[in-house]
Write a structure and sequence with these properties.
The complex is a heterodimer of chains A (478) and B (419). Chain A has 478 residues and is an alpha+beta fold. Chain A is built from twelve helices and 23 strands. The chains are: A alpha+beta (478), B alpha/beta (419).
Chain lengths: 478, 419
């Protein structure tokens, strides 16, 4: 019997697990996919928003501003790439100028530190590649960028290191209220828990309705992106938004913590978890982004992707008990990544108010470090390789990721089960050749460490097989 | 302090090092990131290499083997499984390897011979889902020929570059079914002999002026949608063909791998995506040379060898103080029909008897003249029966002509209209 069982290990579930693992509780996380961070968390703009967008008084407003502050501290403690670059919202017309002033007022009401309205020239002084058409801009110095999947992984790893159980490839099929709590049926057996947290993202409505009558609807909204090579990474120094519209915060142009440039998203309703890209959507993103920053060189694109936002019909986060012992953490669309640790804090408070005892552990492990070879000084590189030769073999040329880092990930608290799992942990395959060179070497390391045939290694999800068969004569000759 | 550090132990690096040794340099180091010398030739097990240089048909490993053997007769030092991380403008080379550790070496000259990489799906923005089963042709070639694994059973190939054509045949021989080769241009980007020997001989259809417009499959490729394109390479609605397949191979171009070159501060040419080089393959950084696919993408390894031998010789000349001659350089400009030239700069005072000039045309031409002009003066005219972007052209400019040029020369194509 678990005290708390969390369904879904995206950023919301991982933050909740990390928060609850501070206390003397038996915590479990069930994740349908073969890795954490497999849904919305791995495919979004990677922005930690300052908090001027949500309506004052909403849960989004409260948890965004609090979450932004917590994220800064968490990323530092857990060694998650984070850059406090600030954001600009651009105006191109009188109507936009009015919107920028409104956003500034909202920012002040929400308690966002340091927001101010700049002239177009002031904005261009800060970011010289901005369009000459920009008439004014909102400056929010507390906005930041991060690596969402590494953030999620760091939170989940911290939970696991502090005793939480993570069950991957474990899809929930049914929920049943029992005297003591909940019976949770899955494809891999039954679990019992006093409390169930619904952090199922795009599937949150489905999970909710296993436990309670419908109280909200999830309307999945897809956003498509370009990721550009590092030679475009300095095109802007801040997160560049346009004025928000009815479907969201619009197309942004931003540096990434890995040194690339991200451009997107559009917004369009889709069925379920449809993350395909379209020529139309990408064309829209390209045209719209060039309005903000006319000099972006899209020939340097290295990847397109799409993510699905788990937006709901409520227009705010849904964090409430839907049934006794069943707490929804649903409708977590933007600014969900930013708000996640504050959502977790808030959820813990609701559980405590419901009678769950939260006693702090004495030996809570709250630090995490991982070696990033590329970021070390020449002297530190030399010392590391002398001590651990595996850090001297570069596997991914584009991102300079070494065998030592991949082995460290494969022996970590949540070992990757796929080539993309390795990519999310150490960055191998994230660069301009997109795994063309390092792919076969990563497959080899995965197969060796997991003690399986290379033919059993998948690209990403279970079923995403890479190799069909051995060649004639097999691998005898190699 | 080395006389020469060669970065890359593929065909370019091997030829450059051998040649530099032959011209008198003695302290030479080759740094190779793979576990053996030979570079991409090691996975090119088909034949057709060496027709120009050795006057016989060799496989890739055999071609590499000849140079590895030649290198064995020299005192050139080789560091394998070692990756160069940084090249500084004052010719310090930072490198790291599992067995060799982290080292900083200094050199009087450096030859950049890192080769090239393949363009990916992301570079050409093919829409659709993102399942497994989309490989660059070279990555698939590595799986089949080096790792002993077949990456799929029903295959569509996008792009008719040489590696894609070679892989069409290779996958077929390994028992896979290659359903189509799809090329967005109205002509193939590969060598004609490969169209014949790798597609026609196996009845694999080649769809010119077509491209992939959608990829379907949640976990693994299930379908690829191919559409005809108009003269502006835009897909024409209503022309879709659906192929049930599990694999899409991409052979959509090669990009010289110049991250070290850029970081060292060498001037770059956006037309080649390589460094700007002089007649002796020297970059804008004195004593730093570039050759092979890192300078511009070649079709034939034989030409890589010839170019790299010149780079090796130039490095030797540089170290041994044999680089006299006037510094003044002519700029080589691309005129009508020409997409790039190598070299981009020629110092006539440094040209001994003649200077080879490589270039590519940007369209298919029949009977044509290659014109070399300086201002209004025509310096030279070469005839060709056929020119195609997929086949690199080579002309030789005698010193005596170059001495008549002023500031810049322009290379252009004039198609001869038949009567």
């Amino acid at each position: 019997m678990y005290d708390v069982l969390i369904i879904g290990c995206g950023i919301t579930g991982a933050a909740a697990a990390c928060q609850l693992s501070r206390y003397r509780l038996k915590v479990a996380v069930l994740e349908r996919e073969n890795d954490v961070s497999a849904g919305t968390t791995k495919a979004n703009s990677a922005i930690l928003h300052a908090g001027y967008d949500p309506e004052p008084g909403s849960l989004m407003a409260k948890l965004n501003v609090r979450g932004a502050a917590l994220a800064k501290e968490l990323c530092a403690r857990l060694d998650v790439p984070y850059r406090p670059c600030g954001s600009l919202v651009l105006a191109f017309s009188d109507q936009d100028d009015q919107m920028v002033r409104t956003l500034c007022q909202r920012g002040l009401a929400n308690g966002v530190p340091g927001v101010e309205v700049l002239t177009g020239d002031q904005a261009r002084t800060m970011d010289p590649n901005l369009s000459p058409q920009v008439t004014s801009a909102l400056w929010a110095p507390s906005a930041a960028i991060c690596s969402p999947w590494e953030y999620c992984l760091a939170l989940a790893e911290t939970a696991v290191r502090n005793g939480a159980d993570l069950h991957l490839e474990t899809a929930v099929t049914g929920l049943e209220r029992q005297a003591e709590g909940w019976l949770v049926r899955t494809g891999r057996g039954e679990f019992y828990a006093r409390y169930v947290l619904n952090a199922a993202g795009v599937s949150a409505q489905e999970v909710h309705q296993m436990a309670a009558p419908k109280t909200f609807t999830i309307h999945p909204s897809r956003g498509q992106y370009f990721l550009l090579d590092k030679c475009e990474g300095d095109r802007v120094g801040h997160v560049i938004f346009q004025c928000p519209g009815p479907s969201g915060k619009g197309v942004l142009v931003a540096p990434t913590v890995h040194g690339n440039l991200i451009v997107g998203p559009d917004a369009g309703p889709v069925e379920g978890n449809d993350v395909s890209t379209t020529g139309e959507g990408l064309g829209f993103v390209r045209r719209t982004a060039l309005k903000s920053v006319p000099s972006i060189n899209f020939r340097e694109s290295i990847r397109n992707f799409a993510g699905v936002r788990a937006a709901s019909d409520r227009g705010d986060f849904i964090i409430e008990f839907a049934a006794p012992g069943f707490l929804d953490l649903a409708g977590i669309c933007s600014p969900g990544l930013t708000a996640a640790p504050a959502i977790a804090e808030y959820a813990a408070r609701l559980l405590a108010e419901d009678g769950l005892a939260l006693e702090e552990k004495e030996n809570f492990l709250c630090q995490r470090r991982r070696i990033k070879f590329h970021h070390l000084s020449p002297a530190d590189k030399a010392a590391l390789v002398a001590r651990e030769p595996a850090y001297g073999r570069v596997i991914c040329r584009c991102e300079t990721v070494t065998e030592g880092e991949i082995l460290e990930a494969l022996r970590g608290p949540i070992p990757p089960r796929s080539v993309d799992g390795v990519k999310r942990r150490v960055g191998a395959g994230m660069g301009r050749c997109q795994g063309g060179f390092c792919g076969p070497r990563v497959v080899e390391l995965l197969a060796r460490e997991r003690g399986v045939s290379p033919g059993a290694i998948v690209q990403d999800r279970a079923g995403s097989w890479l190799l069909a068969a051995q060649t004639k004569g097999g691998t005898d000759h190699v | 302090m080395y006389d020469l550090i060669v970065i890359g132990g593929g065909p370019a690096g091997l030829a450059a090092a051998c040649s530099a040794w032959g011209k008198g340099l003695r302290r030479i180091l080759i740094v190779e990131r793979d576990k053996e010398l030979g570079g991409i030739l090691n996975q090119c097990i088909h034949n057709g290499f060496g027709l120009h240089y050795f006057k016989e048909e060799l496989t890739g490993p055999e071609y590499a083997g000849r140079f590895i053997k030649m290198l064995g007769d020299t005192g050139v030092e080789v560091r394998l499984d070692t990756m160069v991380l940084t090249v500084t403008p004052d010719r310090q080379v930072h490198m790291v390897g599992k067995d060799t550790g982290y080292r900083v070496e200094e050199a009087r000259t450096i030859i950049l011979a890192m080769g090239c990489r393949e363009r990916t799906r992301g570079a050409i923005a093919i829409p659709g889902q993102r399942p497994a089963g989309i490989f660059t042709a070279g990555a698939a070639q590595r799986y089949v020929n080096m790792e002993g694994w077949l990456p799929g059973r029903r295959v569509v190939i996008l792009g008719s570059g040489d590696i894609g054509l070679i892989m069409a045949r290779r996958m077929t021989l390994e028992g896979a079914e290659v359903l189509a080769c799809v090329e967005v241009m109205p002509y193939s980007g590969g060598l004609n002999r490969n169209i014949v020997q790798c597609l026609r001989d196996y009845d694999i259809p080649l769809y010119l002026s077509h491209t992939v417009t959608d990829i379907k499959g949640r976990d693994r490729v299930e379908q690829v949608v191919v559409s005809r394109v108009d003269a502006h390479r835009r897909p024409i609605p209503g022309t879709e063909m659906v192929f049930d397949c599990d694999t899409l191979l991409l052979s959509v171009g090669l990009i010289p791998e110049n991250e070290l070159t850029r970081q060292a501060g060498a001037a770059m040419d956006p037309r080649t995506s390589g460094a700007v080089v002089y007649e002796n393959m020297e970059t804008s950084l004195p004593g730093v040379f570039a050759c092979g696919n890192v300078a511009h993408v070649h079709d034939l390894v034989d030409f890589v060898t010839a170019e790299s031998q010149r780079a090796g010789q130039s490095a030797a000349d540089y170290v041994l103080g044999r680089t006299g001659g006037e510094e003044e350089a002519l700029e080589v400009c691309t005129g009508d029909g020409v997409s790039y030239t190598v070299p981009q700069r020629i110092r006539p005072g440094r040209v001994d008897k003649s200077c080879p000039l490589f270039f590519r045309v940007n369209r298919v031409c029949g009977d044509s003249e290659i014109l070399v002009r300086s201002g209004e003066t025509q310096l030279a005219c070469f005839s060709r029966e056929h020119l195609a972007p997929g086949e690199m052209e080579r002309i030789v400019l005698p010193r005596i002509l170059l001495d008549r040029a002023d500031e810049r020369i322009t290379v252009s194509i004039r198609e001869v209209v038949s009567q």
